[in-house]
Every structure is written in structure tokens, then in C-alpha cells.
């Protein structure tokens, strides 16, 4: 039997030339000390393969029609065998891909691997990062529920801020003047054909460049990259101490990749895919569109930037970051590679992680959003069951104050916590704030009757440490 | 006659290597040229097809929202209506909504539900007489003017008219806030 298999393989290999094609790639020499730090690139590829496989499977049942996509998603999630698992696989695969591409990029930057002669490795990688994020965003829209439909509008509005061609771009995203039949199918084409096609091409180019220039050796402090001598030094290093990629270098990639797939599968099985929101009916207005976690930090940016800078930050900042990333190797492609000799590189990575992490936390909490679910304050919190303070407490909810302000942990976080406002502002100050409004606070002078203002003021004045300490 | 004519022609100058179109060069130009023509034949309709929705006219149509008496003075209510020219497979995405306010006997205002910041659907808080946006905290007064938050403009208004006792709204695209 073994002889037969070997004979068949020998025949097939002879006719197809498989060994000749991939043999040199598998056996190419890599630095012997390229250890666990080098697994993130292959892990990104593993996540991409998971996405392709699970995406193709989902496409067997998904109908990219604005009127039917939601129903097919319900069917996939609730009725199709393994449907829930596959959706989970696709969601956590996307998350893994974003995480791995970020880790791969940080490692490449810290190791100075983007320097000569691997500048284009970096540049193609940055383009792949952009495509990964584009896949993430368009993928969220294919989850054609209420959040997805409104996210398309948000994307169109953002595109609308691009100078001169904004309106045109917005219509391109919507597939016309508003959400409708043309909206989803164009995102399906972009998500399933256009961007993946580009990704296949760029992944092939990226891998070709890895083979052409070799895997960069771990940096050594004091050993500088010199365009005149680097190639020869690298060649000598491989001849002296390199080992074949397969299997000596590749085993770590397989171990890490397997761990990644197991983690994705476990999350898909136990946590499951993101729940579907309401149907994508644009006339349902109780929507609260949020991006998936990997773009939540940008959601926070859009809320926190000063309005006068918004047009610039919304469009120019991502463009500037993209261009800066693309030209990193052109700015500095020689010299030290070791992070210990390039402390600014550590600072850049740390600051990026801290900045994105902080914005991510802010985006997840989104304190700038009014709390539409605020319930009327209980009597215990108001501290009275009748009279002006009680009526003021009731008005505090009815007039929308509680949507934005906290009272003893209840309400919204958009405005200041007013739990002890009675200790902080005088009666006149409170009246002025209510009637005239303030920074980011509407004026209520025209919508409140004088007696209502009196009751609200009475309630707010009673928000004092001493008074509340006496409240049972 | 022929002899005279040929006698007056300038002597032939030998062609430089750059001026000689070799057979190989001709085939190169032919192949590249044909490829470009093929790309145009295939590519132009594709680009036109993809960009067609941008040039599709959607003239606003007057849509009846109900009888005048159906709406109370001073109230703001949510009205829903259908996109007047949806694609057949639009389904529920062809539905849309507006906030309609009756100011007095004859004046109605209809606001777009889209926040002018980033297009999220604003909600009406009747007791507070405020529109609030769930996304980034934009707040508008009952007349649509900005009360707080990041919106750069008041809520967009629809064209309105009363005809034969019916309140009518002129459909319009999603308002896109542009910079330049």
C-alpha cells in the first residue's frame, strides 16, 4: 500500500512539479534564532484562512438582499446545523486577524525589520492592515440588522466630510440617495469579492517578499543596517547558522496557529456570534449603532474631538496615519534595529497601545451618550414622598435631566454627577444653569414653568452630603 | 515628368535606430494597444454599472402623512412613510421616518431623523421637548436648532405643504453634512 501511495505521489509530483514549486520555499534558510516573536505573521494568515473557509460556508445560505439578508441570518443562527458556530467562527476569526496583524506590525516595528531591504514588506503589510479593517467594517454591515443599517448611514456621513467629493462618496456608500435595495449588495460585493481579491494578491506579494529578502534576523544592539553590506552579511549569517524553514522554523508557527484556531473555535462555541439586533428598518428610531470592538476606539474619537477640528480629524487624521505608516521605512531604513537602541520606537508602540486602549474603554462606556433607559428616581433616592423636593425629583426624570446626569449612581453620564450639587452651587447658580443652559447643556428656560423650576431647584438643593446622610 | 519630379526630391536620410519600427516593436505596441482596448471595452461598462446609483435621479415626491386634524398643535410625532421609488427587493429598508411637529393651525414642520453630526437616528423626548442622539450625544431643541453636543447644523427640514386637508411631505435624500 505504501509503495502504491509513493508511486502515485511520484507520478503526480513529476507531472505537476509540486516539489519543484514549493520545495525551495519550504527549505529556504531562516535565522536559527527567529523564535516565538516571529509567529504573528503566520497567525494572521491562519486567521485569514479561517475567514475564507467560514465565509465561503456562510455564503451558501446568506442572501445579500436588503429585504432577505436579516431572515437568512436568523436562519443561519437559529436553524442551520453549525450555523451559530460558523457565524461565531467568522466573528472571532475577524477579531483574531485584527489582533494578530496588530501584534505582527508592532513586532516588525520594534525589531526594525522594516529597514533595508524589507521596506516593501512593511508597505504591503500596511496595505493589508487597511484591507483587514475594511473587511471588519464591511463584515459588520453584512450582519444586516438595525445597527448595520445605521452604521452605513454613519459611514456615508463620515465620507461626506471629504472635501469636494464627499457627497459623491456618501452616495457611493449608500448605493444612492438613501438606504435601500442597492445598499447591501454593494457591500457584499466589496466584502466577498473586491477586498478579498486584493488581499489574496497582496498576501502573495507579501509572502514573495518574505522569501525574496528572507526573514529578518533578531536584532543585535550595535549591529547597524548598512545598505552596502547588509545583503552579504545576511547571506553569510544564513550559510553559517541558518536552518531550513521546514520544519525547523515552521513548527512554532504551526503550534501557535493551532492554538489560535482552538481559541477561535472555543469562543465561537461557548460565546457564540454577536446577537442580531432588530431588523434593518430605517423607520425604527430606537437604534443605538456601535461599531464592533476593533473600531470602537474611532467611535470614541468622533465623540471626543472638539467640533471645530472634527472635519480635519475625521478625514485627515486617518489619512495622515495611513500615509505615515506607509512611508515609515522611507523615513529611516538604515542604522540600529534593536529596540533598546531605538527607545522612541518603544514609546511609539506603547503610546499607540495606551491611546487606542484608552479610547477603546471610553468607546465601550460612551459616557457622552444619553441614557435613554433611565428610570424615575425612587422615593428613597429623592428623599421625600411629597412636596417640592419630590416633585422636583419627578421632573428631573421627566424633563430629561436624568438622561445626562447621575444622582447616586442612577441616570446618565453625559453631564456632571449631581449627587451633591447642593453643596457645590448656590440656589441662584442652579437657576441660571437650568434657565440658560451651559457648556453642552440645553437651556430649559423656554420649556419649564416657573413653578417647575422652583421644584427642580428644591430637589437639586437637597442633593447634599449632610442631608443624604440623614436619609434612611 | 516623373523624372523631373524625382530629380527635385531631397536625398533620402538614413533612419536612426529610434525611428525604425522593428517587427518586434510593432508586435509589442499592437499587443499592449489591444490590451488597453480590451480593458476599455470591459472596464467602462463595469465602472458605469457600479457608479450608476450615483446618477440615478430621485426627484422628491409629495407624500401624504395624514389628515391635518390627525395632528395636535404643539405635538411632535414620529411619522413613517415609504421611499417613493424603491428597488423591488428593498423590503423593509424602503421604509423611512420623520419627526413631524404641528406648530399651529396651518404650520407643520418635518425634521429629518438623521443627526447632522453623523446621521444616527435622533429620538424625541416629549416632556423635555428635546431631540437627543444616542451616538455622540447631540441634542436639539423642539425647533431643530442645536442645543448641545457635536452637531454642526440644526436638524434638516423637509419641504411641507397642506393640500386638500392632508399634510404632505416632499421626500428627500438622507441629508449629508459636507465640509467643502
At a glance:
The complex is a heterodimer of chains A (472) and B (180). Chain A is mainly α and 472 residues long.
In terms of DSSP E residues, the strand content of chain B is 25-35%
Q: How would a textbook summarize the main sheet of chain A? A: 2 strands, antiparallel
Annotated CATH homologous superfamily of the largest domain in chain B: Rieske [2Fe-2S] iron-sulphur domain
Give the CATH topology of the largest domain in chain B: Rieske Iron-sulfur Protein
The span between the termini of chain A is 86 Å
Count of DSSP strands of chain B: 10
- The chain-level structural class of chain A is mainly alpha
Number of helices of chain B: 2
Q: What level of helicity do the residues of chain B show?
A: 10-25%
Q: Order of strands across the widest beta sheet of chain B?
A: 5-6-7-8
> Alpha-carbon distance between the termini of chain B?
72 Å
Q: Portion of residues in helices of chain A?
A: 55-70%
Q: How many individual β-strands of chain A?
A: 6
Give the overall shape of chain A: elongated
Please, what is the average pLDDT of chain B?
Answer: 89
Q: What is the CATH-assigned architecture of the largest domain in chain B?
A: 3-layer Sandwich
Q: Which spans of chain A of ≥5 residues are poorly predicted at pLDDT below 50?
A: none
Shape of chain B: elongated
Major sheet details of chain B: 4 strands, antiparallel
Number of helices of chain A: 21
Give descriptors for this structure:
heterodimer; A: two-stranded antiparallel ribbon; two-stranded antiparallel ribbon; 21 helices; 6 strands; 65% helix; B: alpha+beta; Rieske Iron-sulfur Protein; four-stranded antiparallel beta sheet; three-stranded antiparallel beta sheet; 22% helix; disordered N terminus
Amino acid at each position: 500500500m505504501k509503495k502504491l501511495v509513493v508511486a502515485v505521489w511520484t507520478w503526480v509530483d513529476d507531472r505537476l512539479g509540486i516539489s519543484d514549486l514549493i520545495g525551495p520555499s519550504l527549505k529556504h534558510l531562516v535565522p536559527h534564532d527567529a523564535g516565538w516573536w516571529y509567529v504573528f505573521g503566520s497567525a494572521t494568515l491562519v486567521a485569514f484562512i479561517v475567514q475564507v473557509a467560514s465565509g465561503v460556508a456562510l455564503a451558501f445560505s446568506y442572501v445579500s438582499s436588503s429585504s432577505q439578508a436579516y431572515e437568512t441570518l436568523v436562519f443561519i443562527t437559529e436553524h442551520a446545523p453549525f450555523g451559530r458556530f460558523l457565524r461565531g467562527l467568522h466573528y472571532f476569526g475577524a477579531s483574531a486577524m485584527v489582533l494578530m496583524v496588530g501584534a505582527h506590525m508592532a513586532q516588525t516595528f520594534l525589531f526594525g525589520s522594516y529597514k533595508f531591504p524589507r521596506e516593501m514588506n512593511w508597505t504591503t503589510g500596511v496595505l493589508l492592515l487597511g484591507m483587514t479593517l475594511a473587511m471588519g467594517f464591511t463584515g459588520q454591515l453584512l450582519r444586516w440588522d438595525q445597527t448595520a443599517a445605521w452604521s452605513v448611514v454613519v459611514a456615508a456621513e463620515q465620507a461626506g466630510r471629504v472635501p469636494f467629493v464627499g457627497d459623491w462618496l456618501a452616495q457611493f456608500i449608500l448605493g444612492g440617495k438613501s438606504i435601500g435595495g442597492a445598499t447591501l449588495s454593494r457591500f457584499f460585493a466589496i466584502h466577498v469579492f473586491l477586498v478579498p481579491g486584493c488581499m489574496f494578491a497582496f498576501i502573495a506579494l507579501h509572502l514573495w517578499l518574505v522569501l525574496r529578502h528572507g526573514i529578518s534576523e533578531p536584532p543585535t544592539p550595535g549591529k547597524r543596517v548598512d545598505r552596502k553590506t547588509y545583503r552579504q552579511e545576511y547571506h553569510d549569517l544564513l550559510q553559517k547558522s541558518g536552518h531550513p524553514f521546514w520544519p525547523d522554523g515552521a513548527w512554532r508557527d504551526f503550534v501557535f496557529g493551532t492554538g489560535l484556531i482552538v481559541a477561535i473555535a472555543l469562543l465561537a462555541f461557548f460565546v457564540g456570534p454577536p446577537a442580531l439586533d432588530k431588523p434593518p428598518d430605517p423607520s425604527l428610531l430606537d437604534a443605538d449603532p456601535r461599531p464592533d470592538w476593533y473600531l470602537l476606539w474611532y467611535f470614541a474619537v468622533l465623540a471626543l474631538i472638539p467640533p471645530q477640528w472634527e472635519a480635519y480629524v475625521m478625514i485627515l487624521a486617518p489619512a495622515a496615519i495611513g500615509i505615515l505608516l506607509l512611508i515609515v521605512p522611507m523615513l529611516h531604513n538604515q542604522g540600529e534595529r534593536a529596540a533598546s537602541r531605538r527607545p522612541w520606537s518603544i514609546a511609539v508602540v506603547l503610546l499607540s497601545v495606551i491611546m487606542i486602549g484608552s479610547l477603546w474603554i471610553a468607546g465601550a462606556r460612551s459616557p457622552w451618550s444619553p441614557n435613554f433607559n433611565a428610570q424615575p428616581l425612587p422615593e428613597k433616592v429623592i428623599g421625600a414622598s411629597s412636596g417640592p423636593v419630590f416633585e422636583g425629583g419627578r421632573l428631573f426624570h421627566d424633563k430629561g435631566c436624568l438622561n445626562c446626569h447621575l444622582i447616586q449612581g442612577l441616570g446618565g453620564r453625559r453631564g456632571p454627577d449631581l449627587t451633591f450639587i447642593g453643596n457645590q452651587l448656590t440656589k441662584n447658580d442652579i437657576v441660571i444653569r437650568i434657565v440658560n443652559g451651559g457648556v453642552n447643556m440645553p437651556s430649559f428656560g423656554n420649556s419649564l414653568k416657573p413653578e417647575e423650576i422652583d421644584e427642580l431647584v428644591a430637589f437639586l438643593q437637597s442633593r447634599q452630603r449632610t442631608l443624604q446622610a440623614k436619609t434612611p | 515628368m516623373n523624372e523631373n519630379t524625382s530629380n527635385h526630391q531631397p536625398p533620402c536620410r538614413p533612419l536612426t535606430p529610434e525611428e525604425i519600427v522593428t517587427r518586434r516593436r510593432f508586435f509589442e505596441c499592437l499587443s499592449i494597444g489591444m490590451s488597453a482596448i480590451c480593458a476599455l471595452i470591459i472596464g467602462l461598462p463595469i465602472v458605469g454599472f457600479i457608479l450608476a446609483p450615483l446618477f440615478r435621479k430621485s426627484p422628491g415626491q409629495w407624500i401624504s402623512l395624514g389628515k391635518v386634524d390627525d395632528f395636535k398643535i404643539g405635538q411632535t410625532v414620529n411619522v413613517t412613510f415609504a421611499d417613493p421609488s424603491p428597488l423591488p427587493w428593498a423590503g423593509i429598508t424602503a421604509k423611512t421616518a420623520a419627526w413631524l411637529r404641528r406648530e399651529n393651525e396651518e404650520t407643520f414642520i418635518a425634521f429629518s431623523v438623521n443627526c447632522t453630526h453623523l446621521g444616527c437616528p435622533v429620538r424625541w423626548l416629549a416632556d423635555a421637548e428635546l431631540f437627543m442622539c444616542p451616538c455622540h450625544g447631540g441634542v436639539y431643541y423642539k425647533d431643530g436648532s442645536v442645543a448641545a453636543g457635536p452637531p454642526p447644523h440644526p436638524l434638516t427640514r423637509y419641504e411641507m405643504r397642506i393640500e386638500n386637508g392632508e399634510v404632505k411631505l416632499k421626500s428627500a435624500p438622507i441629508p449629508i453634512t459636507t465640509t467643502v
